[in-house]
Design brief:
The protein contains 6 helices and 11 strands. By secondary structure, it is α/β, with parallel strands linked by helices. Strand 3, helix 2 and strand 4 form a beta-alpha-beta unit.
Length: 221
């Protein structure tokens, strides 16, 4: 059973049964797993979905279910990168500075409101679905779904004369192209660090998850 959070209007169809929406906290998730006879829980959520990941740890213990997290390796700055690392979106807004700039806000729609106090900037936004206009007076919205290419990101950043990029350190390959484009164009990147999630068993590949499901142990970790 695959569970979607319900953040997008039209998630990609999958070849296995799916459900959409929350569970009602720790007890709700534990009750669901007990009713469905779940024996193994794979937390493959976004690295910034700290609440559900924290709830999953507690719910798995409550329901007596084995838990494994599938995590993406975090991005690391390399030669030519101009990163400013911050702890959260509030820090990202402050890092943009007071002088008006043209910013690619590559965060998704849930945290856009955190930048309302830095309304002097122009913001390029990109969402998977169309949405109500955000509370930002100067913005342009692109509706698109990744993965994205370096060539496409270069076209986008140049077309909107972007000077800075704000991104969450999600890791993975599907959204990395914007960082490569920023490096090529010499742009500063405000990189938001991952939130705290309590320690849990974790791996970095689907193959390791499948091995765990087959054998009940995590190999090579």
């Amino acid at each position: 059973m695959l569970s979607y959070a319900g953040r997008t209007d039209h998630p990609r169809a999958q070849a296995i049964p799916t459900r959409v929406g929350g569970f009602g906290g720790i007890e709700g998730l534990a009750d669901h797993m007990t009713r469905e006879g779940v024996t193994h829980l794979v937390d493959a959520t976004h690295p910034f979905a700290a609440r559900i990941s924290t709830n999953a740890i507690a719910a798995a213990e409550l329901a007596g279910v084995e838990l494994l997290a599938l995590t993406r390796p975090a991005w690391e700055a390399g030669p030519g990168d101009r990163w400013i690392r911050v702890a959260d979106t509030a820090g990202a807004g402050a890092a943009l500075g007071g002088e008006a700039a043209r910013v690619f806000l590559a965060l998704g729609r849930q945290t856009i409101g955190d930048f309302a106090d830095a309304a002097q900037h122009f913001y390029l936004l990109r969402f998977v679905d169309a949405a109500d206009p955000p509370a930002l007076p100067h913005h342009h919205l692109v509706v698109d779904r990744g993965p994205f290419t370096l060539a496409g990101e270069l076209v986008l950043l140049r077309a909107h004369r972007i000077q800075m990029v704000v991104a969450k350190n999600a890791g993975g390959s599907g959204a990395r192209a914007k960082l490569e484009a920023a490096r090529e164009l010499g742009l500063r990147v405000v990189m938001i660090d991952r939130p705290f999630i309590p320690d849990r068993p974790k791996v970095e590949s689907v193959a390791q998850v499948l091995d765990w499901l087959d054998h009940g142990v995590v190999r090579g970790v």
